[in-house]
Structures are given as structure tokens and as C-alpha cells.
Write a structure and sequence with these properties.
The chain is 31% helix and 22% strand. With 254 residues, the protein is an alpha/beta fold. It has a five-stranded parallel β-sheet, with helices on both faces.
Amino acid sequence: MKTIAKLTVVGAGPGDAELITLKGIKAIETADVILYDALINRSLLDYASSEAELIFVGKRKGCYAYRQEQINELIVSRAKSHGHVVRLKGGDPFIFGRGAEEIDYVRQFDIETYVVPGISSSIAVPAYQGIPLTKRGASESFWVITGTTKSHQISKDIALAAKSSATVVILMGMGKLSEIVQIFSSEQKSDTAVAIIQNGTTERENVGIGKISTIESIVEEKQLSSPAIIVIGEVVNQRVELHSICEKLETQLA
């Protein structure tokens, strides 16, 4: 029987293994090869067939198991030799996940391609902390921005976002935190609330809450580092209210 070369790009969600979709699990179960990233929950690999080949292709800051060009070539070679390749990515593969780039590459080789969306960390991680990215009277919209561009510079969109009243969610921004603080301070937003959430939705979650003027000292005090999400805006102040409601509910049910 001829092997059908197929790629399914799967979003694994933000870290909590239970936040992957049912369709994502089905893709993992039927995979002949799984190429997985550093930020996925490794317990998701338990759904794979015992005969599936599991290949770690993750990237950490300054450390690469494979370069992107090598990953692209690996997808093609394994799809042609094995059949169904699942590319398992943290969060959603189309939000700073390079999923579209990989699909564009493999389509040149007559390989079937599919996408299973994932729950983005930009939304789920703040939600787990009781932070609504939009709320009537507090925020009408939100920006999701990469803190560091391909050229390792701070994104120019952060300066644009700082001028708005929207909630600003910055991914991959810890290395640019001082610059981010300077940008928001220059817009007279030193008192704007900030949350930094490291390893969100996992057992290793670490959170720092403060203002633009205080967040750097809080990061140092709580030893916050990557991977982390930065949330800036009035909605961060809603966290206190929501946590208070939860505590009252727990007391009533006790």
C-alpha cells in the first residue's frame, strides 16, 4: 500500500495538557512521526502510537535542536518515507508559531497539509489568572505583539500599542522589558497595571503584578524569566476583584 504523505500542524495549547483539543489528540494518535517543540506538555506524547517516531525539534533562547530549514526538510523526508507527520507546537501554530511557513514549504512537494488550531497562550494564560483581556468599561480591544522581532529588535508595534487604551499582550518580551517600560513611561503610563506570568497554566506558574514603574523590581524580586507573557492595561486590576469573588465562593462552599 502506497504511503500517503501528510502533514498536520497541531496547536498543543498553552501548557496545561487538558487544554489541547480533541481533534489535536486524534491527530497525535494517528501520527507516524511527531516533531514536537520545547513548550509543549510532554504528557501529550503519551497519546502517540508506540510505533510512532518522536523527534524533539524545539528551540530555546540561543539554543536550537534543529534550525528551521532543517525542520522543514525533516517534515518532507519523514512524510514521504513514513506517511503522517504531526508538527506539535505550543499555543496556536499560527500565532508566532511559524506554522504557516512550514505549510508553505511542504506544499511545494505535493504533501497534504492540515491545521488543528490551538488555544493561544496570549488568551489562556491571562484567563487562568483571572485577567479578562477585554471588559466593558476597562478595555474595548487588545493587541498581541511579539516583543522581539526576527532581527532581535523590539517590535515597533509596541510603541503604537502604548499610545492606545487597549490591553497589550506581549509574547517573547522579557529580554526587552526595560525598553518596554521606557516606551510606556514616555506615554505617561507609569501607573498602568502590569502582570508578568511565567510558565502560565502549568504547575511551575510564577506571577508578578505591579505597575510600569515597579515591574522591573518585581521581576527581580520574584525571579521571573522566560517563557513569560507580559500583560499591560487596566484589566490587570480586575484580577484582584475576580480572585476576591473566588475566595468568597470557596468559603461559602467549605
